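User: Structure tokens for this complex, please. No commentary.
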Amino acid sequence: MKVRSDILRIYQSLHIWTGIISGMVLFIGFYAGSLTMFKDAINQWMTPPSEALAPIATHQYDDLIAQAVAQYPDAAKGFTLNFNHADKAPMEWFEQGSDRELNLAGVVRQASFDQDGQLVSQVAEPSVLADLVDMLHRTAGIFGEVGHEELGVYVLGVASFLYFLAIVSGVIFLLPTLVKSLFSLRQNKTSSRFWLDAHNAVGILSLPFHIVISLTVIVFAFHDQLYDGLEHIVYREQPMFTRPAPPKVEYKLENVPSVAELQNLVKTIAPEHKILSMNYGNLTTPRATIRVGVFDENSTMRGPVHDYVFIQPYSQQILSSTLNPAPEGIWVRTVASFFALHFGSYGGELGRWVYFVLGIMGAFLFYSGNLLWLEKRRNKKGPEQARNVRWMASATVGICLGSMLAVAACFASAKWIKAYTDSLNYAHMWVYYAVFFACMLSAYLKGAAKSSVTILRLLVITCLAIPANSFIALMLPSLAIWPADSFSDVVLELVAIVLAALFYYFAKQTAKRVKQGEENSVWVTKQSLA
Amino acid sequence: MASRDKKIQPDWWSKTLAGVLLGLTFSFALVGCFAWYGPGGITADSKVQFNMWITPAIWLPIMSFVYLFNNGKQAWMYLAGANVLAYAALFLLR
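Assistant:
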């Protein structure tokens, strides 16, 4: 396709600058996003086998609630019931903190019945390892709060805005050569040609995914502002959100219907779904709501794991649901499907793996984009490279590879920390940020070439340490760490091995380029020139 | 058209600002028309969520293609015109 050259030039500039500004935070958002596809598996992997309380039968739940609240009156404010889950206690509630956002000091009490029907409960310090990965996914690890939202969420929102422009401009300036170059990976020409071909192929082939992700992230970050705009410009005196008036009863647990009654209510709109959990919130206030998580493997899920049904417990009214089948439910269902498109929860287990791979490919897109930017600005006449090029190379290596090494280090150390320290969650954070900043510092001091090889080699070792811990735990049962003990645990550790193999290959290639690559480049060390 | 033969001026700042500001206000007006006159009307349950979602879906394509205007001034003029029309439709027809 022919496109005028002045248009091409404009969109080339747009692509380069939006890409280089947003690329590195998006890199973290994407690879961490890939990992969050398996958040439940990570949580399960971090739960020692001894910790789980026994599941109970459905008809026992009302008794359990009554006895638990009698002994721990605080639980009356809100709690969660889990059904038929081997690793989740039948009932749990937060004694400290809440499940909103990353919560380092959260204390959860879990309750169940023992074999004799006696109430048993224990305090669990939930590991935030999976939440840490999720936090990196949403904020790229940028700390701070603006209003009631995290600063990093806004940063990623702005980055996503630029990312949309980068997608459109990238496609436009690729159009003239699209057909010719899409499926060619020219390996035998220069290495920059290979990176460019790979960058283009990945970008075009996963285009719909990237459009979906960029739009949804903008909404996730700026929904408050967009609602404000709609309120001032469009709705004005019209109410935007209507909620039925709360019923006139006393808001206390005795007036909440039994679990069976509530489940029957859910079944009226979700007859095929399995009920996984019921989250009782704000029970003592007029805002009392029960959020019911329902799951059906054969349908599109709208939440990260399941669909939701919201119930006002005192009036037994269904407030809303992501699967409301009525004609007027079209808006909720459509919006819910936008969420599903981001969360990748519409294609079952296979869909999760596809999203996992797409996320990694996205991370590759941003990394390769930065490499191409560097290559273009390379001084080919001498070994001295401009300062901004050296810094960008160091930042790319330090931030992208450094963040991955930091996460790998968290995984490798997590079970040891859980077994031998009391401040599990703070330790996770320390490990992440210490390793991350150490990588940044080393990339800045030692240059991109040397530090990239070092970090990649450390990534190989750290990834291998994850299954090695299981091996150690099996060999030395006296240790307090525990081995992988379920199918998903084993898969998680196998993925770590595959990643280690990949990083090994990258480390080898990078080391080769450092030694034998073109001399005038940021990817060559001073020593290898001498 | 003579002006078509001229090369496009990048005018980065002016076009970007036009896209960010006028593109957004135009998106709100267009979504407003859909909210009031579209299926279900303004009171349809939860339609506000859908309306919020499609606002950036209109805004970002405008933002992406604002650079195709010959210069910044033209971007401001056309987008301002589109805004006038959209807001007229939103407020006068209601």
